[in-house]
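fold description:
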Amino acid sequence: METPGNLEAHRVDGSRPSDAAVDLYRRLSADIAAGVGVVSSTLRNRDYAATVTGFLSVSYDPPTMLVSLYAESRIGEAVEEAGVWALSLLSGKHQGAANWLASPGTPLQGLLAQVPFRRGPATGSAILDGALAYFELRTVSVHQAATHLIIVGEVLSMGTDAAPAEAPDPLIHFGSSYRRLAP
């Protein structure tokens, strides 16, 4: 018996989940604490960037990461086509940039005009100034997963631009909003 707090996502017969199951999944999965980053890429001399919380370190040897991007998004298409991208991990001071780059309908022209960044040495992708860590990656595989692309990349370059005092202040996403560890 299903209750509003306990729903099956898929039926045994493989049918699609109910609207109630999708809504419950959204609410419950919002309680997964995640770091906040910005994925960026350049395609045809145009910058693309978006705020993400779906990224993961896959392997240390060779250094490999993955990111989950909405398949029909501009950033998903740009990263897939360009084949190189960057991931900047954000500190609490980046909350404004995170909000801006997570907003639907951000302009294509001048997307990064209000976000301080520099070009990465290996890919030319945007790396946000003061990033706790940054990784430049070359795509090694792309996997379709429901509405998203899982993009796996081998790290070409990495480092940090954060001041030592900012390191203990990562921007976190939890409960459908941004949080900070530092007071």
About this structure: The domain at 36-174 is CATH 2.30.110.10 (Pnp Oxidase; Chain A). The longest helix spans residues 19-29. The chain has one domain: 36-174. The CA atoms of residues 41 and 85 lie 5 Å apart.
